[in-house]
Each structure stands twice: as C-alpha cells, then as structure tokens.
Amino acid sequence: MAVAAEPPANFTEYISQLTIGREGSPLKLKRGEAATTKVNFKPPVEILIEAKTHTTNLRIGYAAKQVIFNWEHIGDELRVDGGPAGGKHKSGAGAIPRDKYVLIRWVVTPKKQSIYVDGQLRYEHEGDYSQIDNPVSVFGAEGSEVTVKSIKVRPLPPGTE
Fold this sequence. Notes:
Distance between the termini: 36 Å
CATH topology: Jelly Rolls
Helix content: under 10%
Number of strands: 12
C-alpha cells in the first residue's frame, strides 16, 4: 500500500499575499492579470507553483521575465524570455496538459536554474543567478485562462549550488 507523501517542509504559501488584490485558492486570472508575491526572493530558493491553463500561455516569472508553457505559437517549446537564460528556449519541453493542474518546481541557485513539471526535469541552465532579487509571478496572455491553486516558496540553505 502506498503511503501519502508528506507536504514539503519549510515552504511559505503566498496565494493570499499577492499584489493582485484578491486572495484565495483557486485564483482565476483574467486576461492581463498577474498573481505576484509582495515579497522578493534571492537565490538559493525553491518555488512550487500549482496552476493550470485552459488552453495556452501559462507564464511564470522569477529568474526570467517570463517562462512560457503552452506558448500560443509553438506549443511544445519552453520559452525563456529575459534573465541569464533569456532566449535559450527548449524545444519539446514546454507542453503541459490543458485544463489540468500541474506542479511546477523551480529551483534557482546562484549558479543554476532548474524547472520541473510534475517531477520531470524540463529545463536546466547554468549561469550567474546570484543578483536575482525578484518576486514570483504567474500570469497568462493572448486569451488564456489561467487558474492558480498555490504559490509556495522556501529559501534553500546558504551555499546551495
């Protein structure tokens, strides 16, 4: 018999501490809205985002201006715009199921970022992330309907590479 996994330790939930002015879970975002934490974070940090898109454009921001899943032009390309990995997109890594929650795990250290979807590594880039001091955002675009269930963040131990 399978044993239920314990919830991740030391994470803080930010779904009720956002700049959008609404709170609660799930949080449905209208076109052009962003769910952004009121707090900035510096690496090393681990971010968990549970969200879904009805069709296209689940976008997240922290170590990049935006990382796009289900991009409206090339649905299976993971788009990375801005930040140390800006323009280093990855073909075949951006598709997520439509209208189904996914768990995005974003680990950013001073030297690297790693992005997982439902436990599967989708993207990794080595670079200088040491100067990042940004909030975490979830948003949609181009007519997408995005629903956010959870935004959790925890600092990682100093020296985590």
